[in-house]
Structures are given as C-alpha cells and as structure tokens.
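quick one before i forget lol
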Amino acid sequence: MIAQMVNYRSHARDSGFTGDIPPAFFRKASGSVSGPGEAVVRPSHVKFLDYEIELGLVMGAPLPVGTVVEERDLPSYIAGLVITNDVSARDVQLTKTQFYESKSYPTFTPTGPHLALLDPEDFAHLLDLRLRLSVNGELRQDRTLADMIVRPAQALTLLARFQTLDPGDLLLTGTPGGTALKAPPKAVEKIGALLPPAVKWKAFFKSQARNPHYLHTGDVITATISTPDGRIDLGEQRTPVADANRHPR
C-alpha cells in the first residue's frame, strides 16, 4: 500500500504550501487495512486523530519499473476503485516528522465497501468523482478529482521510476481540504520557528486541543465517492471511532 502526499490543491492550501509542490509518496502498513464498518481504534497515546478520505486505485496488472503510463493506458493497469480513509495520528506524525508510524496503526485504513471494477469507457469520468466525508453528519470534506494535482496516470509513471507494482497493490491518491489539521497562520509559524522544538510543539498542540474537528470516541465517520450521475458509485463507508482501552480485542 502506497499513498500520495499533499495531492489536492485545497489540502495544499490548508497545509500552508505555496507555489509548486513536488510529487511525493509514502508507505502505509498493509496491516492497517480494516473493513468499511469496523471501528477506527485510537491508540491510547494518540490525542489528535484525523481523517482523510482518499480514492484508492487497485492494481490489476503488473507495472514494471520504467513504465510510462498515459491516460489511455489506465484501463490496462487499474482493475478498480475503492473508498479509503487515511486515518492519521497527527501528534505522532508531526513530532516524529514521518508518516509510516502515524498512519499505520491497525484500523487506520478503512477500505470499501465496494471494489468497483471499471470498464475502459469509465475512466473518462474519473475527474467527475466526488469525495465526501462527514463526521456525525457534519460535512468536512467535499471535492472532486478535478482538484487533484498529480492525476493517476502521472502518479503511476512517477512510481514506476523506482518500484514495481503488482496486481492487488493499493495506491491512495491523496485527500482534499477539510481535515482537522490546518497549518498555523504565517506569523505564528515564523514565531514558532524561533522556539526550541519542545516549546514549539507544546504550544502548537495546546492550540490544537481547542480544535473540535479531531476525532473522538463515539464519533461516526461517513465517506462516499461517486459521480453525480451514479455511473461510478463506491458505496458508503461508515466507521465509528473507538478507544483502544474500551475496544474489544
């Protein structure tokens, strides 16, 4: 399982990026995949649990190193599409400046409910797909793939520069704006850069503790991805949030 980082213009703005954003990828542990109705379990040491709806591309054929993928080639490599949620422990991600651990805990990649196997003509409608995520009925994320920076054909080409993909591999293609985590204002960011790391993070997380959009035990996340005409519909993913101390093993 591989994921694209900062791949929607709206998410880039939320994250404080300006100018061109270089394409970047990161890995998530395969063991983080969970079912579309299973609880997302927050580890006991994680305080700032965040959501990221993402379109998942499921490979249907080998992609050897060196492959160049054009838009017309997508049906030859992608078998189908699936809803994924790139759940993130932001306090782990930011303080350790890495993604693998913060996004790889068990249940941190709810996937499904449907694997939509596409016909070749369906690929012309990918940019019409709309990603919508709500928490307890409140809409948080709502964008189409037209907001995407690096689109699937280019993403596969970039990945094929350094690794092979195999049938069944899963590529998460980034999340739109609307996550709980937002970059601080520029003035605050400049002041924070002058502080020792421990002081900076303490101040930052103190401010984040006032943010009501992080996930809490008992919340219910609902995610859908579909085209307006229903030609492609990946179903509805509905996952409750549970605490590790209360979740049955």
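fyi The chain has a mean pLDDT of 91.
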